[in-house]
Design a protein that fits this description.
The protein has ten helices and 13 strands. The protein is an alpha/beta fold. The strands form two sheets. The protein has a nine-stranded mixed β-sheet with strand order 5-4-1-8-9-10-11-12-13, with helices on both faces. A four-stranded mixed β-sheet has the order 3-2-6-7. α9 (269-284) crosses α10 (296-303). The radius of gyration is 18 Å and the shape is globular.
Length: 311
């Protein structure tokens, strides 16, 4: 088995507007700045894992428009293997419209575009890539049936899977026991478990619900409150690092990617989660998704209490 992390997921081009406050329905708000950046939960997690030190292969689809080539080049520049990224004829690249307010909060809308073409038929020929990987990472921005196909192949070959069920959406319970790691935020946990996940007891209850259904390690991210982890090795809260947020976009993606890299290199779960928490904290101090994802040296500096520019 290689040390490779295989990320199967979405790649988007993000159109980002910085605004003083997020608009109400019907309201037009002026923007101080427009920026076009690279995003998509799958691609973000691939970049986060690579910058954190992982050997990463990304499997996905981009459009045959101008953005498709740019997204591939950007992944390559981050050190991600793009041999299994298809440029789909006649498809537009995935795109997200994002508004970010002055305290780092956001609203966003995603048009899947070429990400819809990541079908089970595209995943099945990836069997040997999956079989040779140390970890497969999935999110919920490709058709869920494709995620199920990847989960089944991984399970057949004994490759652990980390699923970030984001954005929230239905997930067949029969696949839960095939997940080594399930990462969700509170909203996603509510949607999966079917009960309100507010307050410490409910968060712990939701993680217990996931583990009772076969998930190896359940992780519920809590924004500035950190992340609750329930696994065989560790159970408790990993606090967030105190920072002044500029843009929280991709905090969850950075957490997942850095966590994956740390686990694959053999860090125990609690230490790996602290590493992920440091990476995610750095991400929220900067604008954009992939543009904000830190390099390993910055993560280590923050963990060691050294000064990191911008924090
Ligand atoms: P997103 O959808 O924006 O990527 P998310 O909702 O999936 O994020 P969050 O729970 O908001 O995920 O954040 C993931 C992790 O990022 C948290 O567990 C925490 O470690 C870190 N984080 C998020 N917000 C902050 C913050 N304001 N300050 C420090 N760390 C943060
Ligand atoms: O998690 C952040 C990402 O969600 C953005 O980069 C955007 O593209 C959407 O996929």
């Amino acid at each position: 088995m290689s040390e490779t992390i295989v990320v199967i997921g979405s790649a988007n081009v993000d159109f980002v507007m910085q605004v003083e406050h997020l608009p109400r329905r019907g309201e037009s708000v002026p923007s101080s700045r427009f920026t076009q950046l690279f995003g998509g939960k799958g691609a973000n997690q691939a970049v986060a894992a690579a910058r954190a030190g992982g050997d990463v292969t990304f499997v996905g689809c981009v459009g045959d428009d101008v953005f498709g080539g740019m997204m591939k080049d950007n992944l390559l520049a981050a050190g991600v293997n793009v041999d299994h990224v298809a440029a789909e004829q006649g498809a537009e690249s995935g795109a997200a419209l994002i508004m970010v307010d002055h305290v780092g909060g956001n609203i966003l809308s995603v048009a899947s575009g070429a990400n819809r073409r990541v079908t089970p038929d595209m995943i099945r020929p990836m069997s040997s890539v999956i079989a040779n990987a140390s970890l497969v990472m999935l999110q919920n921005e490709i058709p869920i049936v494709s995620a199920y196909a990847a989960v089944d192949i991984s399970s057949e070959f004994g490759t652990p899977v980390m699923l970030n069920l984001a954005p929230a959406g239905p997930f067949e319970p029969k696949h839960l026991p095939k997940l080594a790691y399930l990462v969700v935020n509170e909203t996603e946990a509510e949607s999966l478990c079917g009960f309100a996940v507010d307050g410490d007891a409910k968060v712990a209850g939701a993680a217990e619900w996931m583990r009772a259904r076969g998930v190896g390690t359940a992780i519920i991210t809590l924004g500035a409150q950190g992340a609750y982890i329930d696994g065989p090795e560790f159970c408790g809260v990993i606090p967030a690092f105190p920072v002044s947020p500029v843009d929280t976009t991709a905090a969850g993606d950075t957490f997942c990617g850095a966590l994956a890299a740390a686990l694959v290199e053999g860090m125990p779960l609690e230490r790996a989660a602290r590493f992920a928490s440091a990476a995610a904290a750095l991400c929220v101090t900067r604008l954009g998704a992939q543009a904000s994802i830190p390099q390993r040296a910055e993560i280590e500096a923050l963990l060691a209490g050294r000064r990191v520019p911008g924090v």
